[in-house]
Amino acid sequence: MIIANILNETEKLWKHNRTKGFLLLAILLPVISAIILHYLPNNLGIGSNLPMLMLRLFTFSLLPLFLFMSASEAFSGEVASNTLKLGLVRPITRAKVFASKVAAITIFLAILLGVIMITTIISGWLVPGGDYASGLLDIFTAYAAAFIPLMAIGCVSVFIAQFFNKSSGALVTMILIYTAAKFVPFIFPALSVWSIFSYTNWYVLWIGNGAPFVKLANSFILMLSYCIMAYSAGVILFEKKQL
Fold first, then answer.
1. How far is CA 69 from CA 28, 73, 105, 227, in A?
2. Domains of the chain: total
3. Per-residue pLDDT tens for 44-85?
4. Ramachandran region, residue 129 (left: φ > 0; alpha: ψ -120 to 50; beta: rest)
5. How many CB atoms lie within 10 A of CB 161?
C-alpha cells in the first residue's frame, strides 16, 4: 500500500505545472548559460566551472524554492482544497500518507539534481575549456553531496507546512525564514554552524582535496539530526491535524 501511495503522490506532484516548470529550468538554464559563455570573450574564464556554477545557483535559490512550493502544496494546499481529507479515507495510516508525500518530494529533488548535472555536462562541451572528463568524479560527488542538505531543508519545509491550512501562507513563511536565515550569519556568524540553511554549499567541502573527515562527519550528523527531528515533529503534527 505504501508503494502505491508513493506512486500516487509522485503522479500528483508531476501534474503540477510548477514541477514541469522547474524541470524545464533544469534543462534550459545550463544550455542557455553554455551558449552565452560560448560567445563571450574567453568565456570569462569560467567555462570549466559551469557545473559548479549551475549547482551553486540551483542549491542557493531554485531548488529550495521548489521544496518550499512542493511542501506547501502537498500539505497546506491539499488541506485548503479538501483533497487531503479524501486521501485519508483510504485504508492507510496518516503516518504512511505523510511518508508518501515526503518520498515523492524527495524523488523529484533527486531527479532535478540528476537532470541539472547531466544537462550541464552535455551543454558544457559547447564552452571552450569545458572538457570535464578529468573532473567527472568531483562533479558526481558534488551533486550527490548537495542532495543531503537540500533533503534536510525539505524536511524542515514539510514541518513548517503543518502549521498552515493554505499553501500561500506556508510558502511566504518558508521564503521569509529562508531569507532571514541567509542574512543572520552576517550579523551573528557563530549561528551559521547550527543553521541548516547555511549548508546549501556543503558540496564544496567534498570536491578537490576535500575537508577533514571529522568536519564532514560532524556536519552530516547535524543535517541528519535536522531530518529526523523535522520529520518526526511533522508526522506528529500531521497526525493531530484537524481536517
1. 20, 6, 10, 18
2. 1
3. 555 557 888 899 999 999 999 999 999 999 999 888 877 777
4. left
5. 30
Q: Cα(184)–Cα(194) distance, rounded to whole angstroms?
A: 12
Q: How far apart are CA 130 and CA 148, in angstroms?
A: 27
Task: For residues 81 and 96, give the distance between their C-alpha atoms in angstroms, rounded to a whole number.
Answer: 20
Q: How many CB atoms lie within 10 A of CB 127?
A: 23
Exposure of 159 by Cβ count < 10 A (0-12 exposed, 13-18 middle, 19+ buried)?
Answer: buried
The C-alpha cell that represents 215 in the structure block: 568536519
DSSP state of 206: G
0.90 cut: is pTM over it?
yes
With contact defined as beta carbons under 8 Å apart, do 140 and 117 qualify? yes
- Residue corresponding to grid cell 527531528: 229
Q: 168 with 82: CB under 8 angstroms?
A: no
What's the pLDDT band for 128 if we cut at 50, 70, 90? low
Structural domain span for residue 66: 2-240
Helix-strand-coil split of the chain, %, nearest 5: 85, 0, 15
Average pLDDT of the chain?
Answer: 88
Sole residue written with cell 511566504: 172
Question: Which of these ranges, 85-89, 198-202, 235-239, has the smallest mean pLDDT?
Answer: 85-89
